[in-house]
Amino acid sequence: MEDGIVKAISSDGTIRAVIAATTKVVSDARERHNLSFTATAALGRALTGAALVSSVVAKRGQLSMKFQGDGPLGKVVVDATHKGTVRGYVENPQVELPLNSLGNIDVGAAIGSKGYLHVTVDHGFGRPYTSTVELTSGEVGEDINRYLVASEQAGSVVILGTHLDANGVEAAGGLIVQLLPDHTEETICKIENNIAQFGSFTFLMSRGMSLDDIMHRILDGFEVRPLTGIEPLKFLCQCTRERFVEALTILGPRELIEMAEEEGQAEGRCHFCNQLYHVSKDNLLDIARRKNA
Q: Which of 72, 148, 177, 247 sees the fewest Cβ atoms within 10 Å?
């Protein structure tokens, strides 16, 4: 299944759902950051969650999430844009923990259950705003759900999954289902019943079910009206060498010259995509000369 995201609403206007497949996105992140299995599962859920929440909350802008818990992974930071791009990193990418009591990767212990989730939404008008909620469990999906309930003032369900095998990321994806103002008790009962029978998102993906198949399964009993076709998703960072060079211009001429003479170059690595950038000694001296001009 190709990575992508699809949105739908029930024809009676009581339920909205967003579903995403992110296997390639998470695999790219794992390779870029050389992530452990635990870090892959955590960042994979966060990347998927950011893509889903962005489509609900940011719509035409950018959304950033920072999970700051008390677990050994440290910060987990992800960005998503309305153009279908996501990026992210974990502070300690090599952390590996034993499986939990259910035999699953222990994302909750890795992130930690004490701390905060910070969500920043930028609609592109120069006034981004940040909301903060306490972490519920560190399992990512539950924490995102807490944010949605607080910010949207509506009931929701968040399911996220990253399934790994010895060869890497086998399947990754997730969904958000939100109750809309016209919902009834019958609506809630139907959704609760569907979720109880839903099983694992990544298991359904590995069985070959499409996003449309999964959408109809989670909204069984409702007439589904698609809001979009399948929109592509990809891991893409906004960093460039030009931006790195521009950042060097905040240094004074003396600092640039000292760096050129002592280090012979400037080197910087992007947190989000792990891309390494070099600026040569001659380029550093040229920047210093321009600042002196």
A: 247
